[in-house]
Each structure stands twice: as C-alpha cells, then as structure tokens.
Amino acid sequence: MxxxxxxxxxxxxxxxxxxxxxxxxxKAHEVLHEKTGAGNDFLGWVDYPVTYDHKEFEKxxxxxxxxxxxxxxxxxxxxxGSYLGSRAAIEALTHSFYxxxxxxxxxxxxxxxISGTYLKHLMEVIEGKDISINVISKSGTTTEPAIxxxxxxxxxxxxxxxxxxxxRIYATTDQEKGALKTLAEKEGYETFAIPDDVxxxxxxxxxxxxxxxxxxxxxxDKIMDGAKEAKELxxxxxxxxxxxxxxxxxxxxLYRKGxxxxxxxxxxxxxxxxxxxxKQLYGESEGKDGKGxxxxxxxxxxxxxxxxxxxxxxRRDLFETVLNIDCSKLDMEIKEEAEDLDGLNYxxxxxxxxxxKKAFEGIRLAHIDGGVPNLIISIPxxxxxYFGQLIYFFQKACGISGYLLGVNPFDQPGVExxxxxxxxxxxxxxxxxxxxxxxxxx
Amino acid sequence: MxxxxxxxxxxxxxxxxxxxxxxxxxKAHEVLHEKTGAGNDFLGWVDYPVTYDHKEFEKxxxxxxxxxxxxxxxxxxxxxGSYLGSRAAIEALTHSFYxxxxxxxxxxxxxxxISGTYLKHLMEVIEGKDISINVISKSGTTTEPAIxxxxxxxxxxxxxxxxxxxxRIYATTDQEKGALKTLAEKEGYETFAIPDDVxxxxxxxxxxxxxxxxxxxxxxDKIMDGAKEAKELxxxxxxxxxxxxxxxxxxxxLYRKGxxxxxxxxxxxxxxxxxxxxKQLYGESEGKDGKGxxxxxxxxxxxxxxxxxxxxxxRRDLFETVLNIDCSKLDMEIKEEAEDLDGLNYxxxxxxxxxxKKAFEGIRLAHIDGGVPNLIISIPxxxxxYFGQLIYFFQKACGISGYLLGVNPFDQPGVExxxxxxxxxxxxxxxxxxxxxxxxxx
Lengths: 442, 442
Fold this sequence. Notes:
Helix content of chain A is 50%, strand content 14%. Chain A is α/β, with parallel strands linked by helices.
C-alpha cells in the first residue's frame, strides 16, 4: 500500500545541510521515545494509536450510533484542540455541504468564540430539532465552552426535562477530576476520558476527536489504522529513511535561512480545516521563547487571486508546503462548446482534476522561480486511512521539529497572560490586585 | 453620527515618527487625487461612491428583487475580487447560518477553485431547486470561473431550455469587450458593467459586489451611504486629522521597524471573510518588488487557542490590528447555576458581549506586554452603513500605504508567472515553447 510522500527536492537545500541534521534528529528521536526531554509528561500521543483504550473505542462507536438514531442535530462544544481535529476530519472526509444534505445529524460547533450573535443564531437554526451535545473540556472551566455549555444545558433541560436531557449530553473530560467530571457524575452524563498525557492539540485520536468524527458517519477504525501505520513508519531513527523527520529537519534548515513564515497550501477546499488544525499544532508547539515559524495557510487556487502576488513577488521570508492529494474524490469532465468564446476548448475531454494538478505544477515552478522554497506532502487519496496517517505525520514531525528548535513543544505558557488579564477584567474573585493594575491602563 | 475610529496609542510609536510621515503622506494624497502616480489608470474607486452609475444601481436593485422572487438558489461564479467582497458583506451582515434559514435564495460561491469534488457536491445540493446565476469576470477567460460557468451554463440550458435559461443568467463583465461580454450579447443575458478604471480588489461597490449583496436582502443604498461618508471623511490631507491615513502611516512605520506580519484580528466569527477580503487588498497591492507586509488573519477568541501562544511569545516580527465592533448585533445573558461547578457564577447577569469585550481588552494588554504593537479599528456597529465605511477606509488606506511603501498598489504583475506556466502545462495553444522548457523540470 502506498504511503504519504514528502518531497523537498525544490527547497534549495544541499545534501550536507541535511547531513548536519542527522545526529540532532537522531537525538531528538531518542529524547522523544525515551521521554527524557522537555514536556515529557505529554507524550501519550506517541504510542496512542496502539495503546488506546479499545473498550472505550467501542463505546464511541456505540454511542455515535445512538446519537445518529435519536438526533437531528449534534452540537460539539469545545475550543482549540477540542474541536479543530474533529472539524478537520469532518470537512475533509464528508460532503462539502454536509449540514445541507447529510442523512446523519447536522453537526454544529459552539463554545469556540464568545459571540452572542453566533450563539443566538445557532439557537434559531436548531429550534424544534432533536439535539445531542458533546461538551469537550479537560477542566470544564475554560471560559468559552463553559459559557456555551451553560446555555445549552439549560436549553436542553427546558426542552426535554432534566431526566431526558441528561441522556443527550455527552461529556469528554478528565478521567478523574475537574468541574466537568464532577458535574457529569452528579448529573449522570455518559463520559469519555481525555488521557492525562495527551495535550489538546495532540488529542484528535482520543475521544475528543473520535466521537464527533464517528457521529459524522466516518470510519474511525480506518483512521486508527492509518495512525498506527504512521506510528510504525516513523519509528525509523535514520533521517535518510524517515520522511516525517525530513519534514521536521527541512523546516529547521529553512528557518535558519530566515524563512520565518510557512504557508501551508491545499488545492481542495475541503482541506481548509486541516490547515487550521495544523496552525494550532505548529504555532502553539513552536511559537515560544521568541522563536518559531509563523504558520499561515492558503486555499488554492482561490487564494492565488488574493495572496498569489505576495507569494510570487513580496518579501522572501517564506516557504510553501503543499498538501497534494494524488487522487481526487470526485471529478468532472470539461465539455466542448460549439463556439469557443472563453477559449477553453483546448481542455475538451480533460477533467477538472487534470487542470487542478497542472495548476499545482505550474504554480510550484513559478513560486520556485520566485525564490520560494517548495515542499510537497503527497497523500495518495483523502480517506479515513490517509487522514489518520497524515495527522500522525504532522504530530510526530512537530515533536521532532520542536526539539530541533530547542523549545518545549508540549507546553503553551504564553496563553496564561491573556487569560489572567481577562479574568481580572471580568472581575473574577482572586484577581483583584491585577484588576486594579489593569484598570489604570485602559 | 459616530464614525469608524482608529487607535494606535499602543503601537509604541513616538510622535516624531508620525510627524516624519506627514509630508510623505500629503504627497501620497496628492499623487492619488491628482492621478499622477503609478497605477493611475485604476483610480476609479476613489470617487466611485459619488460617481457611480445611478441608473445601473437601480437596475441592480430591480434584478435582485426578480432573483429573490424566482430563485431558491443563487450561484455567484467568480474568483478573487469577484467574490471576496460580496461574500464578506453577506457573512458580516446576514444570519450566521444564512443558507440554512434565510427567506431569500440560498447563496453559493463557485468558480473560485478547481475542485471537481466541490463542484459535484454543489450540483447535488442544488438539485431540483430553481436557480439563478451571476457570472462575474472582466474578461470571461479566467480559468476557474470559466470552467465553472461552462458547467452551469450547460446545466441550466438542460434544466430550463435555452430560452428560459438565459433569463436566469446574469453576467457582470467588461462594458464593451471580452469573451463574456460577447457571449452575453449573443445569448441575451442581462449584463452589469465592471468599470475599466476599478481593479478587482477595489470593485466591491460596483455591480461585482452589489448584485450578490442585494440578492442576500441587504440594503445597498446604506452601503453606498457609508462609502460616500468615508470618501468625504478621508479627503483630508492632514495626517493628524485623517484616521485612514494614520492607519497607512502607522503600518509603514511598523514595517520599517521589522514588523513584517500584520495579524488582523476579529472577535465576531461573522467578520472572517472581511479579513479574507482584506488579505487580497493588502497582499496583492503591496506584496511586490520584494516588499510588503505579510497579511494574516485570526478569529478570536477561537484562534487564541491555536495562534495565541505564538502571538504572545513567538518571534516578534508581527503587529496586531483588531477589528472591534462597539455594539454587538445580538447578545445573551449569562445565568446563575445553583451549584457553581464551572466557576462562572461571578458572571451572572453579565452578557456575552461584556465577556467578549473584556477578553478583547485583556488580550490586547497581554499582547502589548508581549511586545506586539497593537492597532484598533473600532466600528460603532456592523450594519450596511458601517460596512461601506470600513471597506472604503481600508481601500483608501491601501492606496496611501502602497505609495508610502514605494510600490504600484494597483497592479499585480506577479500573478502572470504561474498563469503562463499553468497554460503551458495544460497544453494551451501558443505556449508550446514554455511547455517544452517546463516539462523538462517536472
């Protein structure tokens, strides 16, 4: 069976540059696998495709079937790693207009912003429909999902009564402690566990990602198969033989050359949320201590008509990584017109995917000529199996890349600053001192 | 009446830095208004909110009413400037789930990618519904919309017959020449004109943007009122009195300090496509000759859980511009819970917008402390009037900013490279020589 392929032949990197990174990469591999590096409390994801709780996995499948049976609407309440992974999978692998034409429940995401307008509009759309909710939060106290869950909990209890409501609320949370765990036990919600040693941005293969993905009708066995295969493939410590480590090493080399922005490009709009998920993975893992590549994303060819000029001819601080799907899901043939006014008749009989691939090749060459190092991650096709493989590829590469950069890829200390400020300004008890300081600055 | 407000008091800019830019800004103003600078063939947008063709404007409103009456689905075929403006308006100003609950026609965008999967899925969703189409292309030969239009034209003619189909196809194109203009005349489509002196990314107030916006039920008179007011406000040549020019000048100062990435942040998910539109405006206008700020966008607070760590603590190459809506459209109150497990009871009686605003203030202070210069563009509320004002603010600032940077803000020569390559690889007649060269490189 084919696997994901990584090509850096057009990144302008010399052989000896890669060779210099062989030993550092081997060391990063060792530190990661022997759990001797920074953030080693959060390495549960490395072996997760094998070590995961198979009993809980079966429960996910069973519960997803129940939800599909009794719900017209399924609401996923979570933010960051608690929704980006499942959203990426659902958008990449289901119908482009899933909520408009799926047989299964419509799926909405809430609790990932603080917009009253969004929440009120969402309440309008689901009015009168049968609903289930998956609230996803390790602690249960993260502001955005906690607010949304208060709203939906009270809505559900009013709509169904407390007894029936609790059968439609599913909590994915800490195994033992925390506000949501306590509430779930008190109310009698079905719960799923977020492992202690898997951070939010690495949690897609846990129930965090898998329950919503299964409700969307996707095959989570195949996703785990792909992840497991990737785990095996990327165990190889030799940089020359490990494509995943090559992605990490090449990023590091480009960064040292001053390429401080990585633009992840796709040619299928359905991959948009894979890029959003990827931004969190790399931005949060590496953007610290004044370091890190700035992750940006474009949807081609759409964004060639917005960012194309910059990529071709703006500042040369960037490199481009293309997510290329070898074999498109559906395709369409271009037909002849009697009169060739638009000048497209030379494409008669060709398919849209043929045109899309030629666009990709032409753009790649143009950007290389424009001084943009080009990387390609080729995925044989976008199905559950390769989705799982791709996700693991990025996760493992991120761990290695973070160690090569010299950061702790598994923490996110920077996000505490704004949270503290926000709590203080909101008047949360315990933040009175900071509040006083901040009020003077506003 | 209140207007848009620009605040750069937390950008770390000294008074004399601004003073140094007074004369260059006055000069840029002069060059722009006297049309003596680079790209002066494309300055029609400057006076457009006053000089626009009022007769055609009335036709837009009339046609929009007809489309609303006889169509369940309205498809906008266009790429780049031919769809980003209308999409930005529709998402910012209508219901968050417009296509799921609007009384008017569902609105879909096509021809902005080359994905056969997307197009096939779209055909499935609209099956059996009454359709109108707006194809938007100056030339009619741009690959993406031309392919999509071939597909939909033949679909419509099969569905309705040639005679009826032509009454459901609206072409927004060149006034006199080009493939689409010729076809429209031959087939008898209703047409709308794209002015010769308004480039794609500046075309939102022309029929390019306004027809789809009117079909969505929005008040285009108010949009033009806002644009007109902005045109008056930002005629002032004195930098000290012109907030729009201050945005241009401050960007220029920050760029010279090494702040090469601008992150446009919003706190309302409905503003997402305003940022996409803004990326094209600034990326395409300034990203040339090896220069230009790299435009990036984040949706807060969502993306604080992905990009927040980087913004707080990554490389300090960036500054942040916040689109702040003073008064949110809808709001929701946070209610007390008997048992305060999630610890949110201190917010009882507060609204989500209150929390959202405190988040904004807390984040702003945290990022400033983290070394991120902060700009705020405050919009009194997000309605048609202020939307028009905001768009014009950004357009005028872009023209001035481009002249301050020393580029031609109104061309996009860089996008020719990839187009040529693509045509050659697709086998387009006339590109045989280039094709031979490129094939050797693949």
